[in-house]
Amino acid sequence: MTINEVIRRIEQVGVIPVVRAGSVDEARRAVEAIYAGGIPIVEITMTVPHAPEVVRQVVREYGNDLLAGAGTVLQSTAAKRCLDAGAEFLVSPGLSISVLSTAAAADKLAIPGSLTPTELMTALDSDARLVKIFPCGNLGGPKYLKSLKAPFPDARLIPTGGVNAANAAEYFAAGAFALGIGADLVDLAALRDGNLNKISRAARELAAAVQAARPPAALPSSR
């Protein structure tokens, strides 16, 4: 997929589920549950053992039906491994110019993390198309995002950290482009107990909350 196609898919779905798990099998089951719940995007974090292989397996199994990316990508070497495995986008908790450069060289999307206005300026000056605001919930959540959007009205921001179905509408009202959600969606206890239905139900609830908060007619156009 092209970078624009990936951005459009993220925009259309409105949420990027963050998968953190203790094993390859747990991660694959989390992806299965999220997809069954109606969310066709996943971010496999590099904290998952053998994360690039998980990405490779997900890409092989789901193909174009599910957009697979890699998260917690901290260095260019990890970025390359994930891209070689088929990741369509990379997400970092902070700003890494080397990760941005590696993704750009492969014509793939990298979403750096920022928190302060200075970090956001640096990310945008480095040609970041989307920027993750992390940990957004710790600095005021939707109110903080709204404050950032005032001087950066055209920035496409993805708040992550403390985001859930209950406050999704507040984040979109504050100007979120999409939402990043991890522990509030992928319940590790349920995952380890084999209760995938609980995760699928949470995914359906989240998808419904996003749809209600941002009806199709109100969607902005990707550039």
Secondary structure layout plus pairing:
Layout: H1 3-13, E1 15-19, H2 24-36, E2 41-45, H3 51-62, E3 67-71, H4 76-84, E4 89-91, H5 97-105, E5 109-111, E6 113-114, H6 117-125, E7 131-133, H7 142-149, E8 157-159, H8 168-173, E9 179-181, H9 188-192, H10 196-213
Parallel strand pairs: 1-2, 1-9, 2-3, 4-5, 6-7, 7-8
Q: Can you offer a commentary on this structure?
A:
There is one protein chain. With 223 residues, the protein is of the alpha/beta class. The chain has one domain (3-218): TIM Barrel. Helices cover 45% and strands 14% of the residues. It contains 10 helices and 9 strands. It has helices at residues 3-13, 24-36, 51-62, 76-84, 97-105, 117-125, 142-149, 168-173, 188-192, 196-213; strands spanning 15-19, 41-45, 67-71, 89-91, 109-111, 113-114, 131-133, 157-159, 179-181. The strands form 3 sheets. The chain has a 4-stranded parallel β-sheet. α6 links the parallel β6 (113-114) and β7. α2 crosses α10 (196-213), α3 runs parallel beside α4 (76-84) and α4 packs parallel to α5. The protein starts with a helix and ends in a 10-residue tail after the last helix. Residues 217-223 have low confidence and may be disordered.
Q: How many domain regions?
A: 1
| CATH-level-4 superfamily name | Aldolase class I
CATH topology: TIM Barrel
Please tally the helical runs, counting DSSP H or I stretches of 4 or more residues: 10
Strand order of the largest sheet: 3-2-1-9
